[in-house]
Amino acid sequence: MHLPGALGPLPGHGYKEAPMPVPSPFHERTAPLCSSGLWKDWAGWLAVRSFDDHPEPEYFAVRTACGLLDVTPLFKYRVRGPGAAAFLAWVMTRDIRRLRPGRVAYCTWTDRHGKMLDDGTVMHLGGDQYRVTAADPAFAWLARSARRFPVEIEDETEALAALALQGPRSREVLEHLLQEDPGLRFFGHRRAVLGGVEVEITRTGYTGDLGYEIWIPRERALEVWDRIVEAGRLHALKPFGLDALDVLRVEAGFVMNGVDYWSAEHCLIERQKSTPFELSLDWTVQLDREPFQGQAALRAEKERGPRLRFVGLDIDWEALEALYDEYGLPAALPGRAWRDPRPVYGARRPGRRNQVGRATSGAWSPILKRNLALATLEAAHARPGTRLWFEVTVEYERRLVPCTVVETPFFDPERKRT
User: Fold this and answer.
1) pTM above the 0.90 mark?
2) Which pLDDT belongs to residue 332?
C-alpha cells in the first residue's frame, strides 16, 4: 500500500523530510478494507478518505442505517483540578461552570480580541474533571491560559482512541452491545462496559444525524471495533471515511476550521480572521457573566452588529443545467464535497465590484437532491430568501448562476435529538 508522503526528500537539496502520518489504533482493521487506496493526513494521522472508489455508499449507510468512522485524530485534553470549571469558563465563550456532570457542550474559543481560535466540545466527566476536544492542537494555548488557575492539563490525544457510530440505527447497535438502552440524551455523556472494555460514550457527532462517539483506551481499540462491527452486521453498518463525512457535515451546516474559517493564530492579515458572531455561532457566546477572554470585543461587536454572517446557499439547479446546455454539455458536479472558495455576488450588478461574500464548501446532497454551499456573506445580504449570484467555471470560463440564501441545517432529522 502506498502511504502519502512516502516519497521522502529530494536528493541533494537538503530538504527536511516531512513526518509521515502515523497509523491510528484502528489501522489494522481499516487498511484491509480500504480498496480505493485513498488516504489523507488528518492532524498527523493516516485517515481513510473513502473505502471504495466513491463515497456515496458510505454516505447512504449513515443516512439510512449506520456508519462507523475513526475519529481518533481529534485533539483531546483532560482538564482537572479545583479550578477546572473556572478556567474553562475563562477561555471558552460558554460558561462551563453551568455544565452539569454527564453533559457535553459545543463551544468556541477566541483570542482576547474576540477572534476565533477553534471550536469543539467540552465534556464534564464528573467532579472537577473535563475533556476538551479540538480540531487544532491546543495544549500550549491551554497551558499558557491556565497559569493563574489551580488545574492540570493532560494531552490524551494518543492515549485515547475514538469512534463515531452514526445514523438512524446506531442506537440499536449500542443497545445490542450494552444489552440496554444507551440512555443518553442529546449531548449526554456516560461510562459503560462494551464487550468487556470500559469506555465512555457521548451522544455527539459531526454528521447532523442520530449518533454517538465512543472514547476507548488505545490498547483496547481493536476489541471495541470488532464488537461494534459484529453487532452492526444486523443493522447494515458500514465503515465510512472523510469524503462521506464532508458531504454529511455540509448537509448539517457545520462549520469547519481550516475550511470555512481559519484560526486567528494561523491568519496573516486581520481580514482573514473571524468571530463567533460572523460564523453565526451566536448561541455559543454567553456574554452576561464574569469576564472571559475576548468578552469586551465580543460585547462591542454584538452591540454594533456583526459585519459578516455564515449562511447556507441553495444553488439553482435548473439554471446550472441551462448554463451547461449553452456549451452542449450535461450539467456536471463533483462526486465529492468541494472546499475551494468561490465568489458570491450581489443580485443587482453581478461582477467583481459587487462581490458580497464567498462560499467556502459545498456538495450535491444525494438525499435532498439539492446543490448546497456554505458561505460567509456581508450581513446585509445574508437574510434568508435573498437572491444572489454564485460563480461557476464551465469550459474554463467563469460564469454565474443564481442562488438563494437559506437557513441551516439543510438536513435536520427529528431523530437527531429524540
Assistant:
1) yes
2) 86
